[in-house]
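Recall the central idea of this unit: under ordinary conditions, the amino acid sequence of a chain determines the structure it adopts. In this exercise we apply that idea directly, starting from the sequence alone.
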Amino acid sequence: MAAASVYSSPGFDFSNTIRNSFLNDRGLSAPKATSTGTTIVGCLFKDGIVLGADTRATSGAIVADKNCEKIHYVTESIRCCGAGTAADTEFTTALISSNMELHALSTGRKPRVVTAMTMLKQMLFKYQGHIGAALVLGGVDATGPHLFTIHPHGSTDKLPYVTMGSGSLAAMAVFESGWRPDMEREEALQLVTAAISAGIFNDLGSGSNVDACVITASHTEMLRNFVKPNERVQKEKSYGFKRGTTAWKSEEIRSLVVSEEVTRVSDAMDTS
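Accordingly, the structure predicted from this sequence is:
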């Protein structure tokens, strides 16, 4: 195996490629990309932005949380939807939210959406995709409404409607057929609901409820559990069995209450 230089040169350091090829030659393959298991969307309308997300959190093939929150606070008029590793999306958006508040205090101005986007993309690019955060950033500032997607490696897009996550293709099909410029608030909200619902019902990594957030120049409205399409209904049949249905051969009852007896072994200690 070739040896890497002991001197650190300026710029990017690719010396780990030698290590990676060494491990690959010995059967230890590089990690594969993992599915995000989420549907998050956003679209522009006449007065601002509507963001949407499902509420299912998965751990492999197990549903870890049926009603998690994926629309994260950044500033009063900026929100960020997160897909990918839950801890990465939560702490990345919290860090940028803190930095945005410091930026606003430093400049004395209301922070812009492009500022949050730049902070996020620079941080994610710095970690070369090892932070598993695929984000939809939306908000309204002095220059108007803005909507971005930020990929885990740091690339960004600015579009009038966007989708991310494992259910993004189903959601994008709804946007491609239903979105139009200058929609009213209710039209945009219903379109986002339909897009998230498409992800919920067509993607196993997405599920449960629909969260939405409407951002305008004067107000931000968080609509938690806006639609609940998967509420449990009463079962059609009862599965109660009467006592004695299953027979048993023997019975033993043991007391699990432990009793103890304390015996005094001597009188009080002599302190004279």
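The mean pLDDT is 91.
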